[in-house]
Amino acid sequence: MYLEFVEYTIAFFGFKSLPEPTLRRFTISGLAKSGYYNCEKLLGLSSESTSTQSVNTNTEEANFKRGNEFEEALLNTLDKSTTTDYTDTPTAQSKHVLQTVKPGQTLYQLSFEMPDSFYEDEIMNTNVYRLRRFIPDFIQVKEDPITKERVLFIIDAKASKSVHSSHQFQVATYAYLLSYIVQDIRNLKVDYLGGVWLPSDWKEPVAFRVDLMIPKMKHFYTTELIATLQSKDPEWIYNAKCKTCTYASLCERESVGTPGEIPYMTPHMIEAAKSLIPENKNDSLEELADNLKNMSIQKSNKSIPRFDDWQRIKKSPLFEPFYKSYSEKKPIFIGNPSTIISSGIEQEIYIVFVIDPTHGRMCSYSIKFNGLDFENTLKDYCTGSVDPSAKNKSDIEAYVILAANFSTNLFNVLLKMDQIKAKFSIFFYGNETKVAIQDCLCDLLSSAPKFIKNTKYCEEIVSNAKECLLNLFVGVNLLKLPDALFPDDTHLDRVSSNRMVVLEDLLRENIALGIPGFYKLEDIAEWMCEDTKSVSKHFLQSLEKDGLYNTWVLGETKPKNSSLEREKRYHIQVYGEILEKYRYLAQEYQQQQHQHQHQQDRTSSVCIFPLVCEPFSWTRSGAIYSNRLTRLIFFKYLELLASYEKLRTERLADLCSIAKKGLSGPTNGLLLEFVEYAQSISEARQVKSLVGHFRVVEQDLDGATKIKIDSLKSNTFQEYILVSANSQGILEIISYPDLMYRAKLRNLNITTMNVKAIIENGNVVVLSGYFKPLNLVKGTRYLLYRRHIDFNTDKVIAVLKDMGKSENADSVFSQLVEDPNGWSKQPVRRDLPVDIKATALRLRDDFAMSPSQKIISASTLQNRLQIVWGPPGSGKTEFLALFVNWYIAHIFGSCPETRPLVIGVTAFTRHAISNLLSRIASVQSRQGILAKFQIVSLGTVMGENMIHTKADRLPALIRSLHSKNMMAATATATAVVVGGTVWDWAKVKKNWPEWAGCDMMIIDESSQLLVSDSALVINCLNESNGRLIIAGDHMQLGPILQNEYPQMALSEPCLFGSIQQCLMRTVDNQAIPTQNFRLQKGVSNDFGPNTIQLKDNWRMASILLCFSLFCFDLLYSFIKNEELNEFFKQIYGNDFTARYPELTLRHDWSKFITPTIGRSQELKAILDPKHALTMTRLLFNHTNTSAANIEIETEAEVVAQIVKTHLMTRVEASRSQTPISKTKHSPLHVTTTPAPAVLVMVVTPHHRQRVAIQRALGDTQGTVVVDTVEKMQGQECELVIACFTYLTITKSKLDFLLDFKRWNVAVSRARCKIIIVTTDNVLQLPTHKDNSGLDVFKSHTSAEGWGFVCLLRDWAEKEESVVRWHV
Ligand code: SF4
Questions:
Q1: Residue 117 to residues 170, 218, 382, 1200, Cα–Cα distance (Å)
Q2: Which residue in 652, 707, 695, 659 sits closest to 781, CA to CA?
Q3: Can you give the residue ranges of the DNA2/NAM7 helicase-like C-terminal domain (predicted)?
């Protein structure tokens, strides 16, 4: 529907149609660019037959030069004996070159041209376009290790900071075209990987999967490109993305009368505009188009719009200010509460920064301070420029010296601000400037030592740059600095806005202007600055894009009064005027708002600046000896800050929503209405207390309220804050410094609550707390928010800092992270006699170990570090339990020991620890070795054979057990297995400082435990004897991270993820990235010398025995249900063996009552037991896809039908097939029903899907569990339905929804059958028009996920198990 609208709108307003297509000619780089902008108009413009040609600017020339220089420099670094330059080789000879190439060769600048047969056979159209000659920068010739074929690895060199989708497009196009060219060359093929060579790593290009992109390329060249070129109305919107496009001026002119007249217009906003049209109007789209057209007419003739609907659009908060701005020709203040700028700023600093694209470095800057009485030591204006004659030199010394000068000046300013505790902010116009300043400071850390000869001065420069970064740019990028740093004295207690204010963001958030596309500085100056009109045209030109750079190129930088200096001062003046005008408009708006409000309604008055500017206080850089530990400390800070920031953003959004819509709009806080006070009696202590009953106010239909109710936690941490449901209440919580109170339980300085229960079917929340300050009134509304609590980050940081002291330089944790392979091979001081080892190995059969379990047991005796890679259903916990019992019985029991043996056990969750301890106890009892060791649980009370104690009492307990054992007749040393969380182990260490540590530590679920948090438990390992076993599956969901962390070089360990991923290294101690999870034919997994995979798949239980019990009219199939396992062999290797391959679902279809909607064929096909993996494709009619939530509701309906049919016709097996412990209800919900066996698991990525499916299913009496993928990890069921029904996947959701780990967990829960419910839009994601095309390949996460989706899709098609369901 949206497409229809866009097509219509564009057709109506008319992009002036391109000339009748003749034969268009394209360069691959031109096409790649249009893909980057996702703009069909650009596609047309980039062909050379178009009359409008781009103009080469100074900037474009400089970028071109920079690219060429990088490419040439790269060529010089390559081995001359194996690299051949084909620059002068005629294109006609290139194919012959390829016929003769040998592995090991590198081909530089070999050019190609597609033959006519390509357009005839492949494109199937010879009349529309031709591709120009193309030249991949480098082609490395490799050899396929299995087939011994020659393989072409295609690389393009790009002088960029990171790989863009346009780079990937270019390389994938080369791969697609070369595959055609080499198809008839024997023994030669194109590699499944391609590469982009960046200046950040001169040794290795960044590699990515091109094979997954080939279908997209084929679709693009055979269908999309032709369709666009033949279309009279290509799609385009002139908006923010056009900033860097060559054709921006042209499109700005042509945007008149199109939706692009509204600045920063997006497809989402168009969608919003569409929703404003009354539903009963048949011709609504036409009228909307007219309305938008009229908006542009307003600009010229000021006429009043004619249409009724325009009145509606006008009233929309989204469009009304722009309409007003166009009609009144003045800036209009929108009225959003802002966190970009705070109130109470007393000092303003303005920065102008000019970048020279030739070197990608700053060539000129100015800093200006306002609002300060300056002493002689600090001027109020600092400035500097590189002599423009340096721009042509490859020598960059002049740039580095200028950067050092800038950094010193900035440092001095901050120093002064700290001295006077200034309330300041720094202003500049665009986000590009902010990024450029940060890059300049970061670069200085590595380039200053190369170019600044005076060592003392150089150290000072580096130190200043670091301090500036820490005080102004705290973020994930700093983790990549070669010399790591962390804020040692972070003022986490403050609630403040950023000091760095991007003026464009400020205007975009709150000022509506009659400017199409986006806010260019020159336009803003015209609208916002009164004095601008009086200056000369020359000055106005300097405000244009690259204006200052163009002036710098012209020379004349030295004189104080040079053109450049005057222009930079003029820029600063304009910034100041913009800010002044902004404040004036904000004040005017607030005054108007106050006049409109009654005195008694002040509680809902608008607050534009909810944050107050805090006095500046210097943050120093922490100093410890280890780079790795420093990064981990900084990582913990960043996670803490990000999780708090998330809460704060939600609160600010509520302030905005209440300001605009009152309580009629949805809120992030849970909206409650006070009902009554009641008495609550604590069962444990029989103490009466006062509680409040609050009715939940339903705010929406799509389940958001239920999601909020489900997420409530009952504890005694005062985790919730209750405030009045009005602006005053939300302002109170916005200014609450959560971080200051994050580890406190008392004196919290705000009204905090505990959730006691949720009653009346989820409609009433019972809260306990000190209600008095709120003076609760029956029927009055309140908002409940979560408080940010965190008792653990400080503990982790303290341990890491302690390890970072030079005297602890060789801690076990540091050694492990640095070189796990080396640590693993260290001799253990208390090693075992050879004969004991040999006997013990023979006795593994007593414990019925499988072959792979035996291999791991033997390896664990050889190495200090053993990583047990346990795929889904591989019996990882069972193996660990067998191993512990075997080790104690036959290794420790055979040694003459006098010292107690302590085996520590931990995991990410308490549930996993309890599970492992219970398994150990059960094997101990089965093997009859109860007397051999004690099991101790720290934390939860466990089974009969276990001792429960608190962490601080463990030392006394072990001492007492040991002395009892030694005094017994056998006088044997004690063995104990102790299970506790990492936090329990931190307490053990603290209370037992003289302790030598555990002899062995087992970390289960290690793929979910953060590296930083694992330090607490690895710190408890005996330094000379301790062994570490970690077990998990790094291909399932890892730890939940609040930030997206930068990709580090392979020589760096993966610090910002799980301990398992971090310790898995190749023999060369290189990190192992998760990409390439799909095994190439004939290749087996190799995750380094310390990792061994469990090869058994125990998930499928045998049901063969019960088959004879069924009568003949039962429609069931006996199948070898090896299928699921076969599918997973593609990921876990060919030797992943199904131990119970015969399991299948069984149905008695005589019990089936045909549903009224007549879907019996589809339902039977979906549940068909012949297929262990079925894909249900929901096919939506084009006309019904625009309804809100259509995919969620449809999916819920389909899933409900499948589940009900299964439950109706299912035939019971002779024993439970679903031994899962999860119950349907959260413990907070009051329920008396015991949990029944779960027969179906429904897995969803989003909570909204979960809620819709639960609603559609109704009461299934606990036989069906519906939950998110994260919650389902580690569980299993006979039938699993994985729900991935999406019509569109926006860019921001790609990484989440395409995360291959998420898909892997969802589909690997099944014991008998997995049903995937999805859409064609997902299955054809890169080629589907509604979706994000090349964005899929932008990150490793989404590219890997797409690879997994392809595997599933291809498998289902091959097995003919795809069921189409028309909606
Ligand atoms: S300026 Fe924008 S709309 Fe115009 S061609 Fe470029 S990307 Fe497309």
A1: 22, 15, 64, 52
A2: 695
A3: 1188-1319
Residue 909 identity (one-letter amino acid): T
Are the C-beta atoms of residues 523 and 530 closer than 8 Å to each other?
A: no
Residue 309 has pLDDT above 50, yes or no: no
Ligand 1 site, residue 1322, Cβ cutoff 6 A: no
45 CB near ligand 1 (under 6 Å): yes
Confidence of residue 17 (pLDDT cuts 50, 70, 90): very low
Question: Any idea which residue has 């071109």 for tokens?
Answer: 64
Give strand ranges (E) for 986-1133. Answer: 1000-1003, 1027-1032, 1091-1093, 1096-1097
Three-state SS for 1118? coil
* 1330/944: higher pLDDT: 944
Using an 8 Å Cβ cutoff, are 192 and 1080 in contact? yes
> Which of 41, 55, 166, 518 gets mutated to test ligand 1 (max ligand atoms within 8 A of its CB)?
41
Judged by DSSP in three states, 817 sits in helix
The amino acid occupying position 786 is R
Note the pLDDT tens digit of each residue in 1028-1044: 999 999 888 899 999 98
Please state whether 378 falls in left (phi above 0), alpha (psi between -120 and 50) or beta. beta
Q: What is the largest CA-CA distance in the chain?
A: 107
How confident is residue 1107, by pLDDT bands cut at 50, 70 and 90? very low
Q: How far apart are CA 283 and CA 274, in angstroms?
A: 12
DSSP 423-486: -EEEEES-HHHHHHHHHHHHHHHHHHHHH---HHHHHHHHHHHHHHHHHH--SGGGGGSSS---
Using the predicted structure, report yes or no on whether residue 835 has a pLDDT greater than 80.
no
Q: Which residue has the tokens 């009152």?
A: 662
* Minimum-distance ligand 1 atom for the alpha carbon of 248: 1
18 lines ligand 1 (CB under 6 A): no
**Which tens digits make up the pLDDT trace of 976-986?**
999 999 999 99
Better-scored residue on pLDDT, 1341 or 243: 243
d(CA 36, CA 33): 5
For ligand 1, say whether the CB of 41 is within 6 Å of any of its atoms: yes
Given this model, what pLDDT does residue 102 score? 95
How confident is the model over 712-756, as pLDDT tens digits?
Answer: 999 999 999 999 999 889 999 998 989 999 999 989 999 999 999
Flag whether pLDDT at 598 surpasses 80.
no
| Pairing of β 1277-1284 and β 1310-1319 | parallel
DSSP state of 575: H
What gap in Å lies between CA 763 and CA 286, rounded to an integer? Answer: 44
pLDDT digits (tens, 9 = 90+) for 881-904: 999 999 998 887 777 677 889 999
The residue contributing the CA closest to ligand 1 atom 1 is 248
> Considering only CA atoms, which residue is closest to atom 2 of ligand 1?
242
Q: What percent of the chain has pLDDT over 90?
A: 46
The ligand 1 atom nearest the CA atom of 237? 3
Q: Which atom of ligand 1 is nearest to 246's Cα? A: 6
**991: nearest Cα among 958, 955, 1015:** 955
Task: Give the CA distances from residue 1136 to residues 137, 650, 877, 1099, 1219, in Å, rounded to whole numbers and listed in that order.
Answer: 41, 45, 17, 12, 23
| pTM (two decimals) | 0.85
Bridge partners of residue 340, in order along the sequence: none
Mean pLDDT of 847-862: 89
The stretch 675-689 carries a mean pLDDT of 80
The protein residue with its alpha carbon nearest to ligand 1, atom 4, reads 251
Q: Measured from the CA of 517, which atom of ligand 1 is nearest?
A: 2
Please name every residue paired with 671 in a beta bridge, in sequence order, or none if there are none. 783
According to DSSP, the β-strands at 1137-1138 and 1096-1097 are parallel
For residue 1216, the Cα-to-chain-centroid distance in whole angstroms is: 38
More confident site: 686 or 701: 686
Residue 514 alpha carbon to ligand 1 centre in Å: 19
Cβ(10) – ligand 1 distance below 6 Å: no
Q: Beta 1091-1093 vs 865-869: how paired, if at all? A: parallel
